[in-house]
Write a structure and sequence with these properties.
Layout lengths: L4 E5 L7 E11 L2 E2 L6 H9 L4 E5 L1 E2 L1 H13 L4 E5 L4 H15 L3 E2 L9 E8 L4 E6 L2 H16 L3 H15 L12 H20 L4 E3 L3 H9 L5 H9 L2 H9 L4 H10 L4 E4 L4 E4 L6 E3 H19 L15 H7 L1
Parallel strand pairs: 2-4, 2-7, 3-5, 4-6
Antiparallel strand pairs: 1-9, 2-8, 8-9, 10-13, 11-12
Helix pairs in contact: 4-5, 7-8
């Protein structure tokens, strides 16, 4: 597989399929009748290629005909709607033209042009088109960046940056293996955790190790009963981490406070680190969700009239028991 690949995520759909070196046709119109595209399908199949068709929309007749063909033929057809509207629809098609090295076709004209895509991965969540970044695409991205500098509308700026990001985004494939099924599952879960953590980090990161909660607790005023509960509860994560590592809690907190929270204690290395150069981090969204969920559970317990708990099983003192008898 070429190393210089980019992933393009434009279209959501319900398919789950993978094509290599497929033909692509871009149509700036609604396809109402199968006869409007049958010659395109025959042409692609005669050259032993799968076909991806982009259009504004497809009628039920066209969808049913394509489903029948996919059931009978070795080569397959994928129909994908353009999700944008108005001028944005045109801009998306321009991006695709550069990627697929083709042009936008019109049903009124019989002069159709096929494009080609290196790899297509389509599942129930998203469609990914893998393509080789060439000088034409690089130059196109450069022109989009020039438009960004001239644009002041925040709505259009977001759309332009989103298009550039999709055209530039590089992806890698991680192969996870092991000698046993248990080892493979364990490694895969570790990679999944790392990828999810990386994705969550887009929502900003905070100091880890319970220090963020402790800093919030230190800033809270005990002006009501709820704040008193929060103030005590938010200190517990840091306390528990240091207690588990058999570290003197009071000395660590005193040193951190004296440095105005500019340092953090790394329990793995057992050293203090500057917050500007530390790997002890938490995702902001994780901290928020943990606090929201903990508050929700506490509220549920406080408003419940009855609780069922597992009482600790303590063996009675036999001697005292006999004395009581």
């Amino acid at each position: 597989m070429p190393t210089n690949l980019a992933s393009l995520n434009f279209f959501d759909n319900n398919f789950n399929i993978k094509f290599n070196n497929s033909y692509v046709i871009l149509i700036d119109d609604q396809i109402s009748f199968y006869e409007e595209i049958d010659f395109l399908i025959n042409d692609a199949f005669s050259k032993n290629h799968n076909l991806v068709i982009f259009a504004d929309s497809f009628s039920e007749e066209v969808i049913n005909e394509v489903l029948a063909i996919n059931y009978e033929q070795k080569n397959k057809i994928i129909l994908i709607n353009n999700p944008e509207y108005g001028l944005r629809k045109k801009e998306i098609l321009k991006d695709l033209c550069v990627i697929f090295n083709t042009k936008i076709n019109n049903l009124k004209s019989k002069d159709f042009s096929f494009g080609c895509i290196y790899e297509v991965n389509i599942d129930k969540d998203i469609s990914v088109f893998n393509f080789i970044i060439n000088p034409q695409i690089t130059n196109y991205i450069r022109n989009l960046k020039k438009q960004v500098k001239k644009e002041y509308n925040s709505y259009e700026l977001e759309f332009l940056n989103d298009r550039i990001s999709k055209l530039k985004s590089i992806y890698g494939i991680i192969y996870v293996g092991g000698k046993t099924n248990l080892e493979r599952r364990e490694k895969k879960m570790r990679f999944d955790d790392a990828l999810f953590a990386l994705n969550a980090s887009k929502h900003k990161i905070c100091l880890g190790g319970g220090l963020t909660y402790f800093k919030i607790s230190d800033a809270l005023y005990e002006n009501n009963f709820a704040n008193k509960i929060y103030k005590n509860a938010l200190k517990e994560p840091l306390k528990q981490i240091l207690y588990n590592c058999n570290i003197n809690y009071e000395k660590i907190i005193e040193f951190v406070k004296n440095n105005n929270y500019s340092v953090i204690y790394n329990v793995k290395n057992k050293t203090f680190e500057s917050i500007d150069n530390s790997n002890v981090l938490d995702n902001k969204i994780v901290l928020e969700k943990a606090l929201i969920n903990a508050t929700s559970i506490a509220s549920l317990l406080l408003t419940s009239s009855h609780l069922v708990i597992n009482e600790q099983n303590i063996k009675p003192n036999v001697n005292n028991f006999n004395d009581e008898i």
